[in-house]
Amino acid sequence: MDEQELNSLLICEIENQHIDYRFGDWNNQIAWVSPLLGLGGYEIYARPFDHAHELSHIINHDNYRSGDCDTTNPNESRAHKEAILLLWDMFEKQGGDYSNFNLFIDITGCPYDFAFNIISNEFREMHEAINEIFEDEIKVSINKQEMREYIVDYISYFDVIETVSIYEFLDRYHLSHNFYEMAKKEFQQLLGTT
């Protein structure tokens, strides 16, 4: 899906929300909507991010505006976030992923840093939630001998060991951080430290 197709989809969705959304010169506003009046407009320079941002205002029935440059309004931050998440969802459904993040930015016109922070935070929250669900359902048990074998394998990659990051070790072998104390004791025994 290219930028033009994405713009067309978003404009159609805005119009489906009973908004008379028109193309034209709107006094230096790239895009705007007034859900209360059922009106909106956009300039030729409007990108998918701009349309998705306005769609968020419509869905949330935002009508309050402090002025032309209303950056402190919490509705604006929420609309930015929701626009990015909506566009990311559409991008993923078309086969896009994190390896194509720059393409996502090019097609949608999302602010890079803001989009990166929101998408990586959403992914991290989703990953943590999935781990919480499965951590209770899947009880991983490991005995001292298995832990020792993992540690010996881990140590074999180093010529000289000055410090050991136990969390890095656990992550490398896909072990729960719940095994921190067990791993710490085994490292101490194998390396002769206390």
How would you describe the overall organization of this protein?
By secondary structure, this protein is mainly α. It has 2 domains: 110 residues, Zincin-like; 48 residues. The chain contains 8 helices and 3 strands, in the order αβββααααααα. It has a 3-stranded mixed beta sheet, with helices on one face. Strand 2 and strand 3 form a beta hairpin. Helix 1 runs parallel beside helix 2. The longest helix is centred in the middle third of the chain and has 26 residues. The chain is elongated and about 75 Å long. The model has no long low-confidence stretch (mean pLDDT 85).
Keywords for this structure?
mainly alpha, Zincin-like, 2 domains, 8 helices, 57% helix, Phage protein
- List segments where confidence is low: pLDDT < 50 over at least 5 consecutive residues: none
Strand/helix succession = HEEEHHHHHHH
Q: Report the major sheet.
A: 3 strands, mixed
Q: Quick one: overall form? A: elongated
Spatial strand order of the main sheet: 1-3-2
The number of domains: 2
How much strand? Answer: 5-15%
Quick structural gist:
This protein has helices at 3-16, 48-59, 74-93, 101-108, 112-137, 144-155, 166-172, 180-191, and strands spanning 20-23, 31-34, 39-42.
Explain the layout of strands and helices:
Elements lengths: L2 H14 L3 E4 L7 E4 L4 E4 L5 H12 L14 H20 L7 H8 L3 H26 L6 H12 L10 H7 L7 H12 L3
